[in-house]
Write a structure and sequence with these properties.
Blueprint lengths: L5 H17 L1 H4 L9 H33 L1 H34 L2 H15 L9 E2 L2 E2 L11 H19 L6 H24 L2 H9 L3 H11 L1 H20 L6 H21 L7 H18 L9 H8 L1 H15 L6 H37 L3
Antiparallel strand pairs: 1-2
Helix pairs in contact: 1-3, 1-13, 1-14, 3-4, 3-6, 3-10, 3-11, 3-12, 4-5, 4-14, 4-15, 6-10, 7-10, 7-12, 8-9, 9-10, 10-12, 11-12, 14-15
Length: 373
């Protein structure tokens, strides 16, 4: 394993924080009608795109060349390492919500939960679109449905292994730039085709549901919809390996400026209005942000606070939804909203740190030690 890149860890902390901001809409539903509602909604899209783009960066940076050189051993090491990183906490998280759902529901919803359990525990709930008793599979198990992103991550790992051999070409700045640009443009084209080609409508007709549901699945949940963002992250890792010495402050500034403009446009300006603008423009902003981070050091992203938030981000991501359930506030009193938000963020990060230190890291070390990697 190569050295940890603090800037990327800080970005991961920022991504988790954006997801938590988005879920304050579930914590305090009245925020949806406030002036912050559109911004908080887009924080979720931005945060998830950032997660998947960063995943591509980290996976290629740590495993890309190793798998290309020593496929027989490194592919096994790759899957064991990723299993150790993700599954122990994922399993406990799902188990807790599974028990909660089985005790609190009945009838057709209970049957749907029971049917979906093997799909969730195998990590494949976002791989295929499905309806059980009228309920979309990825929406089952109550708030544990945020685990769709973990399922998508598993899918991306499976797609990465064959794809990494197609990335075995001589890297130059121009080639990497062309590759990454192509991934971004293909992502936008994929989103457009899912809307314009009739695929979403055909799927909706097949499963007797609304076309908006299938379109959102194809763009947001499906590993195929996220794979191009993941590959753009791989391109950023290639760029980092070519130019890891820094000295590109003017390029970083330009990338950050364009990224900020795209985020502002999606949230407030609305200069570019088309059906897939949120997913497309925010995805472009994310890729530019990751590229800016890959070009050199950043005091902000490598600050102790953001690095800490990045290290505990996985635990926080899964556990914060528990605090959403526990602290949900349906009133509109300003003081109560502030106290609810404070309890939510403090509780999420405190429990996330405890879980990271006393469960997530020990499990990871034990599994890696057992498989001697």
């Amino acid at each position: 394993m190569k050295r940890m890149l603090e800037e990327m860890t800080g970005l991961r902390g920022l991504a988790a924080f954006l997801i938590c901001l988005n879920h304050t809409l579930l914590l305090i539903p009245s925020l949806k009608e406030s002036f912050l509602g559109p911004f908080l909604m887009r924080c979720g899209i931005l945060g998830m795109s950032l997660f998947f783009c960063l995943s591509g960066f980290v996976i290629y940076y740590n495993y890309g060349v190793r798998i290309q050189k020593y496929p027989k051993t490194e592919i096994v090491h790759f899957f064991v390492a990723r299993f150790a990183r993700i599954y122990p906490l994922y399993f406990v998280f799902l188990l807790g919500f599974a028990v909660f759902c089985l005790l609190r529901t009945q009838g057709t919803l209970l049957q749907a939960h029971l049917t979906a359990l093997p799909i969730f525990f195998s990590g494949m709930q976002s791989w295929f679109f499905g309806i059980i008793n009228g309920f979309q599979v990825v929406h089952l198990l109550d708030s544990a449905n945020i685990s769709w992103s973990i399922s998508t991550e598993f899918g991306l790992y499976c797609l990465f292994v064959p794809a990494v051999f197609l990335l075995k070409w001589r890297k130059t700045f121009l080639r990497v730039l062309v590759f990454s640009t192509a991934m971004v443009l293909l992502h936008i084209l994929y989103a457009y085709l899912c809307h314009a080609s009739g695929i979403a409508e055909d799927m909706a007709s097949l499963f007797s549901c609304e076309s908006g549901t299938t379109f959102f699945f194809l763009i947001n949940y499906s590993p195929l919809g996220r794979f191009l963002e993941f590959l753009a992250g791989c391109g950023a890792a290639m760029l980092f390996e070519l130019h890891s010495g820094g000295g590109h402050s003017h390029i970083r500034a330009a990338l950050l400026a364009v990224a900020l403009l795209l985020v502002l446009d999606s949230c407030t300006l609305r200069l570019f209005q088309f059906v897939t603008s949120d997913f497309s423009l925010l995805s472009m902003a994310v890729v530019l942000l990751v590229f800016a981070a890959a070009l050199g050091r950043s005091r902000f992203l490598s600050s102790r606070l953001l690095v800490f938030m990045g290290e505990v981000s996985y635990s926080v991501y899964l556990l914060h939804i528990v605090f959403v359930k526990l602290l949900c506030y349906h009133g509109e009193r300003f003081i109560s909203m502030i106290s609810t938000l404070a309890a939510f963020f403090i509780g999420s990060y405190l429990c996330g740190f405890m879980c990271y230190k006393f469960y997530e890291m020990p499990c990871r070390k034990k599994i890696r030690r057992f498989f001697m990697i």
